[in-house]
Specification:
Blueprint (H helix, E strand, L loop, with lengths): L14 E3 H8 L3 H9 L12 E3 H16 L7 E3 L4 E3 L5 E6 L4 E7 L6 E7 L3 H4 L4 E4 L6
Parallel strand pairs: 5-8
Antiparallel strand pairs: 1-2, 3-4, 5-6, 6-7
Helix pairs in contact: 1-2
The site of zinc ion (ZN) has 8 residues, from loops.
């Protein structure tokens, strides 16, 4: 679950250093650096690097919007893309956990990272109208 920051306290016409943002938003500097690695634009021509208020607002708003967006039946949440994606070729493996439920595994159609989610066995007929499902053997242990 994504943490919600006080976006309103960020002034759009101001630029901030990483340490200023961690004070303003009450988060660690590592959090701010993680956003930068994740794609938050910065002014890196001089040190310390500066983050523009409006870029940060946009970044945090997009991030919240993605977090709130429900995953549609035909999609998997991709941890690398950080949003729901269609499975590669709509190919999905169903790996039973017990008699009534299992795990659906697929590759993200964009970045080919393995994505998975839980599914009940009862939902397989419905899911197989969307996906090409291969049912794996239940693990015997
Ligand atoms: Zn992906």
């Amino acid at each position: 679950m994504a943490k919600h920051y006080k976006i309103q306290s960020i002034r759009i016409h101001q630029s901030y250093e990483v340490s200023e943002l961690s004070d303003l938003l009450i988060c660690t500097q590592q959090t701010v650096r993680a956003w930068i690695r994740d794609g938050l634009p910065v002014l890196s021509a001089r040190r310390p690097i500066l983050i523009l208020g409006f870029e940060l607002r946009k970044y945090l708003k997009d991030r919240d919007a993605n977090a709130k967006r429900p995953t549609a039946l035909g999609e998997f949440y991709c941890m690398r893309c950080r949003k729901p994606q269609k499975p590669f070729g709509m190919l999905v493996d169903y790996i039973p956990i017990n008699e009534s439920k299992g795990r659906l595994a697929a590759l993200c159609s964009v970045c080919e990272t393995t994505c998975s989610r839980f599914a009940s066995k009862d939902s397989l007929p419905e899911l197989s109208q969307i996906f090409e499902i291969v049912i794996a053997a239940m693990k015997q242990d």
